Amino acid sequence: MNLFGIIGLKDIVDILLVAGLMFYIYKLMKDTGTLNIFIGFLSFIIVWFLLAKVFDMQLIGAIMDKFTDAALFVIVVLFQDQIKRFFNEVGSHQRWRFLNKFLHKAENKDKQKWVMPVVYACMSMSKSKTGALIVIQQHMSLDDYARTGDVIDATINNRLLENIFFKNSPLHDGAVIIAGEKIEAAGCILPVSHDTGLPRYLGLRHRSALGISQATDAIAVVVSEETGNISYAYRGEMHLKLSSTELEHSLSALIQA
């Protein structure tokens, strides 16, 4: 039997697209800490298919059919943030790397100018154990989060960042959002991660940093108020206890990515 007589080029492309989509969904669920929910839902679909379609169990199949009728609604409710992130990333020019690197080399060089002010501010606040949370926008918009705070719209400056996070400042407890080479807003409210893998000694700032990194492609830099340690979160991963040099290299590398 000629296998290629049954499976054509269109079928191969179809299979590859589905495999790629499933891998991307798996990676997205893993990054956002919802992998167990996704696996549970997928397991339900497999069990339903086996019982109703393969073994032809009509009663249990009919009951499970009622659940699957509402599957789309359940998926939207459970994964609304992940669905939003998925479409944001698909529409992001980051996905077109071959054009992005060619067209935005100059833009990336300009972005490097404000890396050092952020690093200097974090160094100073680390020494004084001043808590800080700085979120750096990448390709996905952070306008929804910026609207929860106060508009700043100022040039990035290490002294301004230090004043915003000064302990007596009314904006001290919120997050600063940097976008478009400017400090866009301060005192912003971020989503909090409920990832149980985080060390218990990490507080709300670290969990908020991880939360925004799971919901978007932003870089979230944290200075601990208790220890003065500098950390950052990106793509759902927390990198703890960085030196100023490590922070500089990490920010420069992620901005160029």
Automatic annotation (TrEMBL):
GO biological process: cAMP biosynthetic process
Enzyme nomenclature, EC number: 2.7.7.85
Organism, as annotated: Sodaliphilus pleomorphus
MF term (GO), any: adenylate cyclase activity
Protein name: Diadenylate cyclase
UniProt cross-references to Pfam families, sorted A to Z: CdaA_N, DAC
Keyword terms of this UniProt record: ATP-binding, Cell membrane, Membrane, Nucleotide-binding, Nucleotidyltransferase, Transferase, Transmembrane, Transmembrane helix
UniProt xrefs under Gene3D superfamilies: DNA integrity scanning protein, DisA, N-terminal domain (3.40.1700.10)
Database matches in PROSITE patterns: DAC (PS51794)
Domain DAC: 80-244
Catalytic activity: 2 ATP = 3',3'-c-di-AMP + 2 diphosphate
Leading EC class: transferase
TM segment ranges: 6-26, 33-51, 57-79
Subunit structure: Probably a homodimer.
Function of the protein: Catalyzes the condensation of 2 ATP molecules into cyclic di-AMP (c-di-AMP), a second messenger used to regulate differing processes in different bacteria.
NCBIfam families per UniProt: diadenylate cyclase CdaA
UniProt similarity note: Belongs to the adenylate cyclase family. DacA/CdaA subfamily.
